[in-house]
Write a structure and sequence with these properties.
The protein contains 22 helices and 17 strands. By secondary structure, it is α+β, with helices and mostly antiparallel strands. It folds into four domains: 2-119, no CATH class; 123-235, no CATH class; 261-325, no CATH class; 338-722, no CATH class. The strands form six sheets. Strands 1, 2, 3 and 4 form a four-stranded antiparallel β-sheet that branches. A four-stranded mixed β-sheet has the order 8-7-14-9. A three-stranded antiparallel β-sheet has the order 10-11-17, with no helix packed on it. Helix 1 (2-10) runs antiparallel to helix 5 (122-133), helix 6 crosses helix 9 and helix 20 runs antiparallel to helix 21 (637-670). Residues 220-292 are annotated as: Disordered. Residues 252-262, 272-292 have a biased composition (Low complexity). Keywords: Signal. Residues 1-19 form the signal peptide.
């Protein structure tokens, strides 16, 4: 059963074994000096990493960095008599990136895991999960997902007489036990529900479900929570008893007019009752057919208790087909979520991978094979861009800019599209860790670069072959034409601080990406920090979830908020327009006295420009098949990057401009001027009128001032203020030759 194997990995414990106690044996796979098992173990004793084997492996070697008096658990974490283990959580259904695999001196394959020093409560919770769900076996996923999706839609319905299904009882007790021992929703769902079902993502709000499980009556639990199992009792929470409700809730067959009638049926202007209106609107005699003012908000955005009820009722109205009675708030869209949503699980240091295609890793002096998405329709590639903090962990990092959200969302009469820093993290919003420079942008560039072997570009260029891109620039580990960029040290301007043996182009691009792990490798048995984590964190931001998802859609070359058939009220239309405009507002914002959001984007773009410049300086053109060609001289990877990134940003602007024009037309058709209130007419002009925020002129990326001739108008290359080498010096590389 999938669940048992994952829980066995999660809760692994072992006796304390010191690295010095390992029994010497002849090496089947000898390692060069600086990378022997003993040297890696010695380095891992400080970092907390360990050998997580894919097969039987060597149990003693696996936990050697973690255990013993000189191990990570006791020496670094201060946990005496630790039940040390090595943990690597991989959601089922996600293919392990073979480029991250290593082999020990016995030829056993392993991945870099993380030392676990305390997991006292895991086994007891595992017993609950197993006993409550084991009998379901092959139908476990269908039962759990059906139950959890229902809970997400309408809350956990009380079932009297102890008739709650065993699956629900086990889930309720498991959730309360995890919460009691200091775990949060992501840990609960990631550690056993996700792996048990083999799903890396969920189509419901896990925080909403988790809250419903915690608030479920005790009679719906298989038993009491397991109790505080942590040695540090301060890390546990008090789980208060929850009695059965004194009255039964409405039956699921409730009609749309049974309960929410006061909320959705407008009252005469002489008897307004604000307390019975939607949480996001007020009564107004000026408009009998629409909400007062011209506000917009997603359900739950104001963080009030009525928000959850409004969400529930709107779902009911949608099913009944009664859109006219729908509350003014709009349910957050689900589109775009797959491109931005994180994988939940116990990844090292609570860092999660960017997406299925972009898996996090700590860069090291070792062979790298990229596989995951197709280049040239033939080559599978996985581009590893590092790891990043999320949630509460990201909030603690000072270099990560926070918290970015809509301005003045409580204003029910005016729909502001401005995105500002919300220093107080108000209104219960959900924030994503935002890579201001999208990882998918790198993937799209490589896909374009590999898409048209020998195809003409401009008047003098021909495109490279996919084989050359993969074998030479990316240099997969089985490449027979490997090319490494060698730029060790960080003293001279332009140094990239690569290993002395060099670094592959794709991996070197990731050095400058927004990331929280820094760039580290083992050299001579010592940990070497090539790029500090503080630098990568400065290119990250905590951005309101809905804005983050919309930004991902634009950069994936997809329209945002384009399903006009669902915008049946002006409030819905305004809310969706705000969602489409917000990413441009965010990218144009200032961040303090000297930094801007766009500078965060441009620092990564100009790092890529520097990598391409260095490649051009070191690569000998005309020596390999499939190279790009330039009839006027040597080709240039830097020129190819410059050509593409300017075109990519211009294409996104054109897409947004077409969306804005169509949106204005559709709005006027759906909501004629003679049916709009004064406030609604003002919003329409503010959005679609001259200099409106939803017009082609305003949906553009920043144009930095003072750039030299030949630089990108967007500052994507040739912007000295944001171009830094490994030691934060300006390399003064000028501008690339343009492809015309």
């Amino acid at each position: 059963m999938k669940l048992l194997s994952i829980l066995g990995l999660l809760c692994s414990t072992a006796s304390v074994v010191s690295g010095s106690q390992l029994t010497p044996r002849a090496s089947k796979c000898p390692k060069p000096e600086g990378t022997t098992d003993a040297q890696i173990i010695a380095a891992y004793k400080s970092s907390g990493q360990c050998f997580s084997y894919t097969g039987a492996g060597n149990r003693e070697k696996s936990i050697a960095p973690c255990a013993g008096a000189d191990g990570y658990c006791q020496k670094v974490k201060g946990v005496e008599n630790a039940a040390a283990g090595c943990e690597l959580f991989v959601p089922e259904g996600v293919k392990l990136d073979k480029s991250l695999a290593n082999k020990d001196e016995d030829c056993n394959e392993w991945y870099a895991g993380q030392c676990t020093c305390e997991c006292e409560f895991c086994e007891e919770i595992a017993d609950i999960v197993i006993e409550g769900l084991e009998q379901l076996d092959n139908v476990i996923c269908a039962v759990m997902l059906s139950s959890l999706t229902s809970i997400a839609d309408a809350g956990l319905t009380f079932i009297p007489g102890g008739q709650a299904p065993k699956a629900i009882k086990g889930i309720v007790q498991g959730a309360k036990s995890f919460y009691e021992n200091g775990a949060e929703a992501a840990s609960f769902f990631g550690s056993w529900i996700g792996p048990a079902c083999g799903i890396p993502d969920f189509n419901f709000d896990i925080t909403m479900v988790f809250g419903s499980l915690l608030g479920a009556p005790d009679s719906m639990s298989r038993g009491k929570p397991v109790g505080c199992k942590k040695k540090n009792k301060n890390g546990c929470r008090d789980v208060k008893p929850v009695p059965d409700p004194t009255t039964k809730p409405d039956q699921p067959t409730v009609k749309p007019t049974d309960k929410p009638q006061p909320t959705t049926t407008p009252k005469p202007a002489t008897t307004p009752k604000p307390e019975t209106t939607s949480a996001h609107t007020t009564s107004s005699p000026a408009s009998s057919t629409t909400e007062a003012g011209a506000g917009c908000a997603y359900c739950g955005e104001f963080g009030k208790t009525k928000a959850a009820r409004d969400e529930k009722y709107q779902l009911m109205y949608a099913r009944a087909g009664n859109s006219a009675d729908a509350p003014a708030c709009v349910l957050p869209p689900a589109d775009g979520s797959m491109s931005k949503r994180s994988l939940f699980g116990f990844l090292p240091d609570k860092l999660s991978s960017r997406s299925l295609l972009l898996q996090g890793r700590g860069l090291a002096e070792k062979d790298t094979k990229f596989d995951g998405f197709l280049l040239g329709g033939t080559y599978e590639v996985t581009l590893s861009m590092g790891k990043y903090m999320q949630g509460a962990d990201a909030e603690k990092i000072p270099e990560i800019s926070k918290f970015w959200a809509y301005k003045d969302p409580q204003n029910t009469n005016q729909c502001s599209v401005e995105v500002v820093k919300d220093a107080n993290k108000a209104n219960g919003k959900k924030y994503d860790t935002e890579h201001v420079f999208e990882a998918q942008t790198v993937m799209r560039f490589l896909s374009w670069l590999s898409s048209d072997s020998g195809g003409k570009l401009g008047t003098t260029y021909k495109m490279p072959s996919a084989a050359w891109v993969v074998d030479t620039f990316l240099s997969s580990e089985d490449s027979k034409t490997e090319f490494l960029i060698v730029s060790p040290g960080k003293t001279n301007a332009g140094d990239l601080f690569t290993p002395s043996s060099g670094e592959r182009g794709g991996a070197l691009i990731a050095y400058g990406f927004g990331r929280s792990d820094g760039v580290k490798s083992i050299s001579g048995g010592q940990n070497v920090e090539r790029i500090p984590a503080t630098r990568g964190n400065k290119n990250l931001a905590l951005l309101e979830k809905e804005i983050n998802m919309a930004k991902g859609k634009w950069f994936g070359m997809n329209r945002v908020a384009s399903d006009y058939s669902k915008m049946n009220t002006q409030s819905m239309f305004r809310t969706e327009m705000r969602r489409g405009v917000a990413p441009f507002q965010f990218l144009g914002a200032s961040d303090g006295q000297t930094d801007t959001i766009w500078k965060k984007w441009a620092r990564v773009a100009n790092w890529i420009d520097l990598v391409m410049y260095t490649f051009d300086q070191q690569y000998k053109w005309g020596t390999r098949a499939g190279e790009p060609k330039n009839s006027k001289g040597d080709p240039s990877m830097r020129s190819l990057w410059a050509y593409w990134i300017d075109k990519e940003l211009g294409d996104i602007e054109a897409l947004a401009a077409a969306w804005a024009t169509q949106s204005a037309t559709v709005f006027d058709q759906k909501f004629p001027k003679n049916k709009r209130s004064a406030a609604e007419e003002k919003w329409r002009n503010d959005a679609f009128g001259t200099n409106g925020f939803a017009t082609a002129a305003k949906l553009k990326f920043p144009r930095p001032a003072g750039l030299p001739a030949g630089a990108s108008i967007y500052g994507a290359y040739g912007w000295k203020d944001v171009t830094f080498d490994a030691s934060n010096q300006n390399p003064n590389i000028g501008v690339p030759d343009q492809i015309v």
